[in-house]
Amino acid sequence: MEHDQEHESCCEQTQRYCVERPIYNQELLQGHLHRRERAPQTLGQRIAQSCRCSSKKLKSRLYSCLPILQWLPRYPVKEYLLGDIISGISTGVMQLPQGLAYALLAAVPPVFGLYSSFYPVFLYTFFGTSKHISIGTFAVISMMVGGVAVREVPDEIISTGYNCTNITDSLDCYSARDEKRVQVAVTLGFLSGIIQLCLGLLRFGFVAIYLTEPLVRGFTTAAAVHVFTSQLKYLLGIKTSRYSGPLSVVYSIAAVLSKITTTNIAALIVGLICIVLLLIGKEINLRFKKQLPVPIPMEIIVVIIGTGVSAGMNLSESYKVDVVGNIPQGLRAPAVPELHLIPAVFVDAIAIAIVGFSMAVSMAKIFALKHGYDIDGNQELIALGICNSVGSFFQSFSITCSMSRSLVQESTGGKTQIAGTLSSIMVLLVIVAIGYLFEPLPQTVLAAIVMVNLKGMFKQFGDVAHFWRTSKIELAIWVVAFVASLFLGLDYGLLSAVAFAMITVIYRTQSPQYRILGQIPDTDIYCDVEEYEEVKEYPGIKIFQANAPLYFANSESYTSALKKKTEVDPCAILAARRKAQKRHAREIKKANKPRKKANKDMEASVKHEIANEELPVNGKFASAVSGLQDTSDDCERFVEPKANIHSLVLDFTPVNFVDSVGAKTLKSIIKEYKEVGVGVCIACCSGPVLTELTRLNFFDNTVTRELLFHSIHDAVLACQVKARSISQ
């Protein structure tokens, strides 16, 4: 009782509106409206307008190309500087060990990871629009770079291309191999940067939308497996070849297992201790996030401890533990990338450019939304392109945004790109001053850092359960992206995943949901009749809705669903009508056919048979009348639409475009239903769709704009008025 009273009081408080207006079709509505006058511009006028320059326009373009000119003069030193300094130092101590570690993934000496952690980061300060992301080396991109470097310069080149008979020659061979791999990685970075720069200048920032979240998460999860597998040999201290391309994960695991008996116990112990320390540090940072002023920099602590232990115990000589080795002091002179390698790495550069941009812009959007500022996707492309292309002249490989470092930079109080600049300066100090101190660092320590940083990516396996509950199609995209990237390699896997994602879009438009709508009593609101009990259909009127565009791929299914849902098939009705007419004509012809005169001695018996079997009824023989009656019943059953439907309303609210095939299909539907006495009208047709229909010559003498209505309710009322006028 109390619930009913509350419901009644709620209904009384509900606001109501009452509008009295004419029933508008498109032609009548356009007659009451006045279009704004727009003078059409010629191509020359458009070009002249775009090339016209004013001080305001020049200033806007300059700020767009160099965002630092906009925010640096307004930088509030007292409010932001301390937070940026703390954030920059915290990010820098992460940037250093990750730069060394991810260089191993890129199949280049560790010092090139430091170069990639300095030049691009410093350049992003001037050209980037995000205040919180940390640019630099990233596991997925480094893995993709390493795959290309190993493919172009495989380990076999040592045995086939060089004479490596003694230790000195062997070191020279490895050095020559690494130098060639550096050239490949640098050229790849240059080309991917040029691609990003061109896409940004052409305003192609939207390309990232084709990498949907399920696709990116499935792809990065597979990349995490690739990265983890590639680090097993460093953790175990065994010597195996590095593989790239399809089934590289399988080959890598098989190679590790085949040499598992040669595991270096000292390297394994050091690596496992580092993994435990790093996991403990991450757990402490997570649990005591609010209590800690800054996260514990466990990675740099592990690097320092590992370096000290290795140098003190001489692990390299005493236990044959592989170490980082020579780290040249100072910066390299700029050099032009090897341009003759471009044809070999072009496709890989496209994949790296798009994946790198997608990673960066997705993180940038998250932080921009959280802190209330805007980022420019096209400018981000340009910024990444400059970072990669210019950085390649200084021996850096492809970079993007690092998720873990970005989270640290934001959580430790970073406010602007100044934090990134300070972190790059810390890396610079290591390169020019104290880099040699890290030469005894065991490679197993770097492998431990890489593996622990994959923890967040491995958590993405939980997406399977999430997408199973929410969307089976997105689950399929995730699984295809993961499986394809895992077994075909990251480049072919990404291509396969994007192609599959496109196919799912086509599948969704080819298999939309079709509904028959009805009215909520005493309102102008129309809903699915199968979903709500209160919704009722108007007698004689069917309202049909499809939540997809009408184009070549789904025009046939649209027509089939329309006939099935309305239970009115004009083709079947017309076919049955023609068949009935032909049968009727045959029976008439048979009934009127002159009969041959029989012999006089048989006349009585013939008349007796006629009198008993074919007695004329109303001028026709009984058999003909009976056959006609049966045919008439069949014809009536097919020719008359079910429930005496006289009108059909097509709801075009979800339709966002129509092509020539869709327009022809729509015109055919109107014509066919008209032939069986069912009038068709279109409701809620948007402006762009109406313009497209006009351009496709949809309207003529038989199909006029009077069939288009502003709303479903207008169309229904017009159908009712027309039906009443016909019945009278």
From TrEMBL:
GO terms for cellular component: membrane. It holds the Pfam family Sulfate_transp. SUPFAM superfamilies: SpoIIaa-like (SSF52091). It is a multi-pass membrane protein. The chain crosses the membrane at residues 100-127, 133-150, 184-211, 249-280, 292-313, 341-361, 418-438, 475-507. Keywords: Membrane, Transmembrane, Transmembrane helix. GO terms for molecular function: secondary active sulfate transmembrane transporter activity. The keyword Transmembrane applies. It is found in: Membrane. Residues 531-719 form the STAS domain. CDD domains: STAS_SulP_like_sulfate_transporter. It comes from the Eukaryota. InterPro entries: S04_transporter_CS (IPR018045), SLC26A/SulP_dom (IPR011547), SLC26A/SulP_fam (IPR001902), STAS_dom (IPR002645), STAS_dom_sf (IPR036513). This is Prestin.
